[in-house]
């Protein structure tokens, strides 16, 4: 559902790539594009404003990262801020110390509450819980029956009033068919009596927000004291999701949000606004009509999906984790002065290899898809061989490769189990590369590869 938002954000950030320095004008232009992309995706205006101002402030505030170039730094900032508006940490269900845990569902009609009750029950059951669904939507014709069908499919028992008789549940507990509060209470009693450890209460929705609906939902809440009240909202309703969320936050109060219909082709702004506007975490996401189209909502995963750069982001993370700034700085200085040694080269190579198999690292670079053929030829075995050759050299040879004459080459080849021509190739290429890098960094007037985003 985030396809067009994702395309636009990726596009906005792509323009920054390859720039050694970012001017304030570059950042302003990128922020303008991000702003348009978010507004077009139906994210609410105050949320967009706050988001953009944080990005601007951080990007212009020059967060320096030795491991990242300026464009990567901006991607990192946008990603972190996106995770922030999506709620930061993953928020999980808080189970009651003394079961049963009571989870109440609230939301407009058609939001997907009944479907969710089944999915949630199914999911909890898979984790070893024993859930009971309680049918308190006594308004909509057929709602009770719908929950029973859903429960059957999910293989989760349903507590429901018997139609017409005024008698509830599975027989024994008397409740009035027209009174959802009594049904809810009886459902909880049933769970206690039969040792179900989670109760999921499905409540009635309306087509629009109204006072009576809110009162009914808050009466059920007061009577059952739920551990979690989940506000279920259809992500496809756009800006209305925010208004509805505010009304429910006011009228019923809730502890978490469930976004449904994320499989739809809507613009998805709801996902990005609800948390920021209500201050309540998004806890689950529902993305289809099947029982398994449901998952815990992870802000970080959602952000990288929206940015459409999951791989680039993990590359950034790994680079930050493994980058030794001092070492890189020292190597960069040597490069500018044409003094890089094979020892430095080996160290740099080892640093990069700490990030994982080389094919994976290169494969994570943007545009790697189009270079599949080339990448498939770069393998770790080749690098192992290069490492072995350098390790077969004496410290003196590594520091001053010029002394590596024919007899030394033969000794190195024998010692590291390769042919002399492989040693020749490595040494020749090293000299070529050293010359080229020194010339390039001289021309570009910078301190080598390790530019800082100042
Ligand atoms: P309720 O009135 O809140 O109980 O909503 P329902 O559970 O009856 O759902 C309303 C409609 O939305 C039904 O046709 C569901 O099959 C459909 N639905 C619910 N969740 C999803 C979802 O995540 N994706 C899609 N595509 N449809 C859904």
Automatic annotation (TrEMBL):
InterPro entries: AAA+_ATPase, P-loop_NTPase, Signal_recog_part_SRP54_M_sf, Signal_recog_particl_SRP54_hlx, Signal_recog_particle_SRP54_M, SRP, SRP54, SRP54_GTPase_dom
Record keyword Metal-binding present: no
CDD domains: SRP_G (cd18539)
A Pfam cross-reference name: SRP54_N
EC number(s) reported in the record: 3.6.5.4
Main enzyme class: hydrolase
Function: Involved in targeting and insertion of nascent membrane proteins into the cytoplasmic membrane. Binds to the hydrophobic signal sequence of the ribosome-nascent chain (RNC) as it emerges from the ribosomes. The SRP-RNC complex is then targeted to the cytoplasmic membrane where it interacts with the SRP receptor FtsY.
Subunit and partners: Part of the signal recognition particle protein translocation system, which is composed of SRP and FtsY.
HAMAP family listed in its UniProt record: SRP54
Descriptive protein name: Signal recognition particle protein
Organism field: Gordonia paraffinivorans NBRC 108238
């Amino acid at each position: 559902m985030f396809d067009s938002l994702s395309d636009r954000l990726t596009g906005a950030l792509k323009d920054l790539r390859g720039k050694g320095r970012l001017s304030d004008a570059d950042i302003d232009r990128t922020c303008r594009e991000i702003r348009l992309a978010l507004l077009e995706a139906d994210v609410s205006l105050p949320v967009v404003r706050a988001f953009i101002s944080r990005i601007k402030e951080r990007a212009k505030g020059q967060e320096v990262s030795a491991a990242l170039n300026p464009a990567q730094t901006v991607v990192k900032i946008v990603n972190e801020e996106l995770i922030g508006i999506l709620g930061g940490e993953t928020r999980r269900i808080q189970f009651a110390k003394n079961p049963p845990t009571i989870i109440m569902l609230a939301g407009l009609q058609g939001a997907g509450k009944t479907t969710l009750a089944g999915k949630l029950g199914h999911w909890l059951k898979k984790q070893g819980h024993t859930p009971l669904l309680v049918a308190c939507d006594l308004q909509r014709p057929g709602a009770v029956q719908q929950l029973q069908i859903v429960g059957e499919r999910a293989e989760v028992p349903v507590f429901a009033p018997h139609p017409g008789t005024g008698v509830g549940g599975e027989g024994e507990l008397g409740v009035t068919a027209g009174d959802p509060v009594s049904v809810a209470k009886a459902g909880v009693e049933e769970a206690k009596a039969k040792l179900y450890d989670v109760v999921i209460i499905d409540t009635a929705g309306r087509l629009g927000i109204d006072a009576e609906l809110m009162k009914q939902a808050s009466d059920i809440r007061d009577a059952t004291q739920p551990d979690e009240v989940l506000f279920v909202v259809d992500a496809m309703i756009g800006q209305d999701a925010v208004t509805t969320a505010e009304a429910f936050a006011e009228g019923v109060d809730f502890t978490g949000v469930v976004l449904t219909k994320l499989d739809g082709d809507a613009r998805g702004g709801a996902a990005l606004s609800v948390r920021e506007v209500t201050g309540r975490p998004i806890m689950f996401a529902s993305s289809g009509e099947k029982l398994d189209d449901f998952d815990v909502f992870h802000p970080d995963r959602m952000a990288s999906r929206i940015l459409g750069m999951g791989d680039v982001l993990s590359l950034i993370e790994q680079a930050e984790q493994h980058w030794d700034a001092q070492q890189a700085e020292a190597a960069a200085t040597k490069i500018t002065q044409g003094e890089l040694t094979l020892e430095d080269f080996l160290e740099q190579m080892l640093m990069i290899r700490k990030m994982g198999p080389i094919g994976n690292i290169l494969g994570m670079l943007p545009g790697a898809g189009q270079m599949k053929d080339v990448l498939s030829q770069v393998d770790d075995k080749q690098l192992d061989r290069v490492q072995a050759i350098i390790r077969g050299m004496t410290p003196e040879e590594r520091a001053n490769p010029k002394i590596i004459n024919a007899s030394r080459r033969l000794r190195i080849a024998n010692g590291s189990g390769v042919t002399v021509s492989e040693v020749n190739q490595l040494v020749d290429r090293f000299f070529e590369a050293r010359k080229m890098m020194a010339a390039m960094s001289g021309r570009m007037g910078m301190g080598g590869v390790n530019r800082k985003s100042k």
